[in-house]
Amino acid sequence: MRIIGPNRLGIYHSEHGLAFRQLPRDSGPVGFVSQGGGHAINFALIGKVTGLRFSTVIGFGNRCDVDAAEVLDYLADDPKTKVVAVYVEGIRDGHRFFNLLKRAAARKPVVMEG
Questions:
Q1: CA atoms of 99 and 71, how far apart (whole Å)
Q2: CATH of the domain at 109
Q3: How many Cβ atoms from other residues are within 10 Å of residue 15's Cβ?
């Protein structure tokens, strides 16, 4: 079993009806990975108001198990995700993360803040 968290808001996957708030059920092209739980929910709520729809939003928090690199790798392979947005506060294995970031960016646009 894998663990997302602690100190996170979880996973929003509109197509499968998995949500941490009252968010749209219609899927969109943006995947968002966020270390900050507040960023994850705020981004999703702004999307709700502005019409921006998400394939997946994952707020992974303090990363006791699943981290940004792993979620980035997932979104790079997800056919429903056409654009990836990333917010990270710290990276454990910079070499691994950078390699996965290059891999993802070769497949689709990636926007990152940290």
A1: 13
A2: 3.40.50.261
A3: 13
Angle at 27 between CA 62 and CA 16, to 5 degrees: 70
Residue 78 has pLDDT above 90, yes or no: yes
Q: Are 86 and 36 in contact (CB under 8 A)?
A: no
**Domain span at residue 108?**
10-113
Domains in the chain: how many in total?
A: 1
96: which 2 tokens?
């691994």
Q: Which residue type occupies 17? A: G
Q: What is the pTM of this model?
A: 0.86
Q: What pLDDT band is residue 21 in, cutting at 50, 70 and 90? A: low
Q: How many CB atoms lie within 10 A of CB 26?
A: 9
Between 76 and 20, residue with greater pLDDT: 76
